[in-house]
Amino acid sequence: MHYQYSGKQSPRTLAWHETLELHELVAFSSIGLMKLKKGLKKIECPTLKAIYHQTIKELEANLKELLQFYPLAPREDEEERNFDKAFYAGDLLAFSKTAVRNYAVAITETATPELRVVLAKQLQMAILSHARIFNYMYERGFYPSYNLQQLLKNDVNLANRAISM
């Protein structure tokens, strides 16, 4: 399904902020899709296996829809990357981002001062962990956060690889 801009004039490009959100969704969904497909062979319960299949089908459809917007993204120069290292590094980056968010939310729900101290300490470790994996990815070109076109090309390659698995 192709979506069209409903205003009087079609945009020539997406805005930078929406392009970055699009990038986050495509990268997260692609890694999730790859994990689901890798884990599918280990699922024995027919009901759970059916849920996995449905989720995989929906993620593939979502990625195909989102990828349609990539031609509208602002353009810069593009490069290739190493998928295996980038996949595992991206998975760790997504995990570390989620850990930071989860600790931050948990702290706001904590009434016990001793627990709050422990969670705050662990939040700081999660932030450092995120910085470590981000720096690893950035230094190797796996997460070219200052090069939007490369970032988007990486998303397209990752999504297409996830779909074709």
TrEMBL record:
<keyword id="KW-0946">Virion</keyword>
<dbReference type="Pfam" id="PF07875">
    <property type="entry name" value="Coat_F"/>
</dbReference>
<keyword id="KW-0167">Capsid protein</keyword>
<protein>
    <submittedName>
        <fullName>Spore coat protein F</fullName>
    </submittedName>
</protein>
<comment type="similarity">
    <text>Belongs to the CotF family.</text>
</comment>
<dbReference type="InterPro" id="IPR012347">
    <property type="entry name" value="Ferritin-like"/>
</dbReference>
<dbReference type="InterPro" id="IPR012851">
    <property type="entry name" value="Spore_coat_CotF-like"/>
</dbReference>
<keyword id="KW-0749">Sporulation</keyword>
